[in-house]
Automatic annotation (TrEMBL):
Residues 5-193 form the DH domain. Its main location: cytoplasm. This is FGD2 protein. It comes from Eulacestoma nigropectus (wattled ploughbill). The gene is Fgd2_0. Residues 222-314 form the PH domain.
Amino acid sequence: MQEPEEKKIALELLETEQAYVNRLHLLDQVFYTELMKEAKTGKTVPEEVVKMIFSNISSIYQFHAEFFLPELRKRMEDWNRNPRIGDVIQKLAPFLKMYGEYMKNFNKAVELITAWSEKSPPFQELIADIQKRKVCANLTLQHHMLEPVQRIPRYELLLKDYVRKLPPQSPDRGDAEKALEMIFMVAKHSNAAIAEMERLQNLWVVYQRLGLEDDMVDPSNELIKEGAIQKISTRNNSTSEKYLFLFNNMLLYCVPKVIQVGAEFQVHLRMDVEGMKVRELKDTEFPHTFLVSGKQRTLELQARSGDEMNAWIK
């Protein structure tokens, strides 16, 4: 007899979960454990660095090895009597939020591996030695570390497929649909965590370029646009090069520093966005000019092109 489609997918979930747990075992029990042991001798790399590279991989490994995989296995052995996996996945879904931390840390982890491999030959040698083992299948540590990042999208795809293949009257339909919704929310949560981390990193870089002025460093600010601009001086009919940073709440009017020690720009003026008015100026002598007037003062600015002017006005 032909196996029903939904059972094939459930079995694929179990098989990929088993392979995934093996990969997590390699990351946590082999790479992390051995690198940590070496770090404790003080010869390779600080313990803190190893912890930062592997983030919360131990919790992820324990959860899958000790809870999710055994539950799935039990369920598949009992499939003929009780053909369902939706309830098990519902129990799993909230714990997948743990992945947010791992994914937020992923780029930093890869950078640390590269940086310390250059700085510490013994660290590089130990990684190379583990990578040569059969269990690594000729793949690098970085490659294995990608696996948790790809796991949640994999659950989502398998579960979508499972729900599609379920017969309309299946006892698992309600649970499986709810489980899919929960997995979808977790995937969204992880993506949001990564996006937020990138936003904060970019914001921090901008603050450094501006010299980290205390009253300006605010994590809730959002950089909307930045770029060079010409300031028109009506007094002597000339222009000079300036630089603008537009945030959600303020416009920073800056001068590029000649000697770039520390900050790249000096903030000449801060204008509140609240109450600000912007309009195009029809000036034959200075094309692509627009006027920005705020509570603090009014600036006459010239962009390089019509498109650029429109982008700023917008």
